């Protein structure tokens, strides 16, 4: 399936979208670019660390709410559009910790209404909430050890989750290599899952070594084959992140206005597909360099 | 002995000294990664370095720019999931030291990395908790590294993201936290402060070379208290500096290019 078809079929306006990857690692950029080209709007974006694609969609006014543990790019700075939108009161953000978010997905994937957690107690993450969201938490006494406090958080089942994998077969069996962050729980909790992948492998190969399958096809709705599809973020064993391009995006996002419009016009709206974008960011030469950088790190 | 060092370098080396060999250390992004890498290359070769994206026991390469940077995953025992490290290792109680950076730290050792001003329309929006609340709630010991600037050390945090001693010595117990009375140490480029467990407040335990208690007060909004005895931070040896500069951060990503 193409990214355009997958987004048309599985992402609706107003959707609750689960975002995979973390920070500068393994974001399904090719799918998010397509969501932006199709102007999917009124989105609620959820995940643990939300980074570049969230920031782009917020900057373009496509997002109504975010629920996450962090919005930032660590050494590359904050997520500027997100920060500005929250400070200007244009975007609602509900704060959780990363363990809290993954626990909400864990509840969701197991068909439970809520999940228990032992952090957050005594903090403003519980004490403060946004007006537009429902009940944020409940503190109960452990029925088997009275006096011990436990926090309950509402489970989370995204309408669609978007992740990037190293390998997939055509039916949607996925192999993710390297760190996994919150993706196994989030993927299995989601009503639909779009996966972009570096390589499409045969189902025979998957079924020969089924213990290597990270996520089986039963959870997956669409597979989009897009080599280098996570640029400018990194994909473990495939290529490093593109620091130069991340800094270019960060500069545009920090300046906002015309600079941000110029970035999105050049790199997203004027591109018919992700291959055209990849040519603009440096094409084959850049790809080889980032690939080499990754090989040297392994 | 060497006099050719910056306080920023000594801050990293001093923070690393608080990690003991053999411990499991949950490491936040930025300076904590650098200091933990340094500890791993010097006195604490057998620590289990844990990063929130899922790496367990890596030998990080110089020098990760993110917890998702493959450099933070080199030769790990396992690249797992966020739930495995924050849930299984940390929440289950297997982490000895939680190592954090901070935006704002108050006199009770609470950290704010979320907002200044009204929550719904803040004056300043910071990145948020990430795993920091979980680490501060659940680790047996808490270590914080941060540059010492006045605005970073208010009397009370504008928003309490990660719990120190909340508002007093018994407050963590009252709130129901699992880790009741953790050792909590803040290492800055001016001083080392630890929570006095009878008061639940930070007290200066060590001063950086050439730094006075008055100087620390000038850079701190809350009233600075000294512990009953204040020791100087040991200056780094030539070997310690060489390891930090050549093996941990040769590109001067965190040590500063102008220094």
Task: Provide an overview of this structure.
The complex is a heterodimer of chains A (298) and B (259). With 298 residues, chain A is of the alpha/beta class. Chain A has helices spanning 3-10, 29-37, 52-59, 80-87, 98-109, 124-127, 183-189, 203-208, 243-255, 257-269, 274-280, 283-297; strands spanning 16-19, 43-46, 49-50, 63-68, 70-71, 92-95, 114-117, 138-141, 149-154, 160-168, 174-175, 193-200, 222-225. Chain A has a single domain (3-99, 157-297), classed as 3-Layer(aba) Sandwich (Glutaconate Coenzyme A-transferase), CATH 3.40.1080. In chain A, strands 1, 2, 4, 6, 10, 11, 12 and 13 form an eight-stranded mixed beta sheet that branches. In chain A, strands 7-9-8 form a three-stranded antiparallel beta sheet. In chain A, strands 3-5 form a two-stranded parallel ribbon. The longest helix of chain A is centred in the last third of the chain and has 15 residues, at 283-297. The model of chain A has no long low-confidence stretch (mean pLDDT 97). In chain B, 24% of the residues lie in helices and 21% in strands. In chain B, strands 2-1-5-10-11-12-13-14 form an eight-stranded mixed beta sheet, sandwiched between helices. In chain B, helix 2 (31-41) crosses helix 7 (238-248). The chains are: A alpha/beta (298), B alpha/beta (259). The interface between A and B is large, with 71 and 58 residues.
């Amino acid at each position: 399936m193409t990214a355009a078809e997958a987004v048309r079929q599985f992402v609706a306006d107003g959707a609750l979208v689960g975002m995979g990857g973390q920070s500068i690692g393994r974001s399904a950029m090719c799918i998010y670019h397509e969501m932006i080209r199709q102007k999917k709007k009124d989105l609620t974006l959820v995940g643990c660390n939300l980074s570049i694609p969230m920031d782009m969609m917020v900057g373009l006014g496509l997002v109504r709410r975010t629920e996450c543990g962090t919005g930032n790019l660590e050494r590359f700075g904050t997520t500027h559009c997100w920060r500005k939108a929250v400070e200007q009161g244009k975007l609602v953000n509900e704060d959780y910790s990363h363990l809290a978010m993954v626990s909400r997905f864990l509840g969701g994937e197991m068909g439970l209404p809520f999940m228990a957690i032992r952090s957050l107690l005594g903090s403003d993450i519980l004490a403060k909430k946004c007006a537009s969201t429902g009940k944020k938490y409940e503190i109960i006494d452990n029925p088997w050890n009275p006096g011990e406090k436990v926090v309950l958080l509402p489970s989370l089942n995204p309408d669609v989750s978007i992740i990037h994998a190293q390998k997939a077969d055509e039916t949607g069996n996925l192999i993710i290599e390297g760190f996994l962050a919150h993706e196994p729980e989030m993927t299995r909790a989601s009503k639909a899952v779009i996966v972009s992948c570096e390589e499409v492998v045969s189902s025979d190969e998957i079924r020969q070594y089924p213990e290597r399958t990270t996520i089986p096809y039963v959870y997956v709705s669409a597979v989009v084959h897009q080599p280098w599809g996570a640029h400018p973020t990194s994909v473990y064993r495939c290529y490093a992140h593109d620091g130069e391009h991340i800094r270019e995006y960060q500069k545009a996002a920090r300046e906002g206005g015309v600079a941000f419009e110029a970035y999105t016009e050049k790199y997203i709206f004027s591109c018919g597909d992700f291959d055209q974008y990849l040519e603009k960011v440096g094409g084959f030469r850049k790809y080889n360099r980032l690939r080499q950088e990754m090989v040297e790190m392994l | 002995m060497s006099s050719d060092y910056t306080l920023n370098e000594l801050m990293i080396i001093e923070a690393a000294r608080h990690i003991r060999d053999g411990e499991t250390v949950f490491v936040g992004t930025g300076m904590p990664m650098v200091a933990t890498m340094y500890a791993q290359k010097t006195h604490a070769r057998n620590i289990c370095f844990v990063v929130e994206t899922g790496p367990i026991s890596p030998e990080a390469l110089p020098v990760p720019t993110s917890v998702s940077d493959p450099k933070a995953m080199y030769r790990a025992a396992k690249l797992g999931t966020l739930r495995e490290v924050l849930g299984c290792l940390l929440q289950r109680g297997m982490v000895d030291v939680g190592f954090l950076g901070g935006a704002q730290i108050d006199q009770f050792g609470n950290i704010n990395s979320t907002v200044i001003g009204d929550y719904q329309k803040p004056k300043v929006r910071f990145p948020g908790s990430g795993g920091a609340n979980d680490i501060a709630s659940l680790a047996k010991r808490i270590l914080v590294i941060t540059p010492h600037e006045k605005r970073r050390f208010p009397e009370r945090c504008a928003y309490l993201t990660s719990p120190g001693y909340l508002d007093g010595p018994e407050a963590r117990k009252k709130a129901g936290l699992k880790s009741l009375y953790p050792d909590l140490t803040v290492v800055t480029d001016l001083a080392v402060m630890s929570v006095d467990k009878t008061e639940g407040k930070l007290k200066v335990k060590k001063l950086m070379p050439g730094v006075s208690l008055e100087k620390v007060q000038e850079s701190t909004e809350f009233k600075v208290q000294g512990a009953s005895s204040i020791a100087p931070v040991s200056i780094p040896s030539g070997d310690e500096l060489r390891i930090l500069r050549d093996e941990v951060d040769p590109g001067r990503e965190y040590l500063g290019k102008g220094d």
